[in-house]
UniProtKB/TrEMBL annotation:
PANTHER family the record matches: GLUCOKINASE, RPIR-FAMILY TRANSCRIPTIONAL REGULATOR
UniProt GO MF annotations: carbohydrate derivative binding; DNA binding; DNA-binding transcription factor activity
Highest taxon above the source species: Bacteria
Species per Swiss-Prot/TrEMBL record: Paenibacillus rhizovicinus
Coiled coil: none
GO biological process, one term: carbohydrate derivative metabolic process
Domain named SIS: residues: 117-254
Protein name stated in the entry: MurR/RpiR family transcriptional regulator
Length: 278
């Protein structure tokens, strides 16, 4: 947040505000303009003019920026993980703590929606998967598992114009899987809108409870990853993917079993040339 206050020619009153806010960042969310005016010994009008100086419309917008840039910063999330690790509970307790994310995800899981998700994956012509950042690991896992069952899979570029070169091949019978965590990116907005235009189905896996994109997807699965200010866990999303894969395998049982037998045969036939790594 300090970057908002650098290289600016503040008046003395605004300098007081910038200094106070920098030192009391965690308190800003609970303050109104009158509180800031009293704390900095300036007028309310001086406080009101300050927001434009730092590129915000008003105090409300500035508070949102504090939340986004400070409370949700990678360093703050890491600090929350470090604090838990140093709490003296031990590594085993920290591992077991992630079970709470599984419980939260299970509590919100609707069987009908889960079955729709499995059906979407199991019957799609091609499954296109989009997962930016840390979610890229989830796209790799889903790709690996579905491919083994004979489901055609294509992973989409994480962003930019490369996305267009890939989605032009999407057909009505295909499906797009989106791992949408934290917020709706421009790429996610494009994919959801394009899917409606093309007539293909979409599956959104998210940890958001409130978001404009929740109503845009055909199928929605919630997976808890921790509070916004915490270091986010991928335990629940991985568990959800694994459960989906089993359900898809059941839907494609004949082909899944055939592919499994063929895989076993190939491993035995070429084990001397390509031995299985331990």
């Amino acid at each position: 947040m300090e970057s908002l206050f650098t290289d600016r020619n503040f008046t003395k009153g605004h300098q007081r505000l910038a200094d106070y806010i920098s030192k009391h960042m965690d308190d800003i969310a609970f303050m109104v303009e009158e509180d800031l005016a009293h704390a900095c010994q300036v007028s309310i009008s001086t406080v009101s003019r300050f927001w434009a100086e730092v590129g915000a419309k008003n105090l409300k917008e500035f508070k949102q920026r504090v939340k986004d840039e400070v409370l949700l910063s990678p360093s703050r999330k890491l600090q929350s993980a470090f604090d838990k690790a140093s709490a003296g509970t031990g590594a085993a307790a920290n591992v077991l703590a992630t079970a709470e994310y599984l419980r939260q995800s299970a509590d919100r899981l609707e069987q009908a929606e889960f079955e729709r998700a499995a059906g979407l994956l199991g019957t799609a012509g091609t499954v296109y998967i989009y997962g930016p950042g840390s979610a890229e690991s989830l796209t790799a896992l889903m790709d690996f598992r579905l491919t083994r069952f004979g489901v055609p899979v294509r992973r989409l570029a994480r962003g930019g114009h490369e996305l267009f070169d890939q989605i032009i091949h999407v057909q009505k019978q295909d499906a797009i899987v989106i791992f949408g965590f934290v917020s709706e990116s421009p790429e996610m907005a494009v994919l959801l809108d394009f899917a409606k235009e093309r007539g293909c189905r979409t599956l959104l896996m998210t940890d958001l409870v409130v978001s404009g994109m929740l109503g845009k997807a055909d199928v929605l699965l919630y997976t808890a990853r921790g509070e916004q200010w915490e270091f986010h866990s991928m335990v629940a999303p991985v568990a959800m993917i694994e459960a989906l894969i089993v359900a898809v395998g059941k839907l494609r049982e004949e082909q899944a079993l055939h592919n499994g037998e063929e895989l076993h045969r190939l491993r035995r036939q070429y084990q001397k040339l390509l031995p299985k790594k331990v």
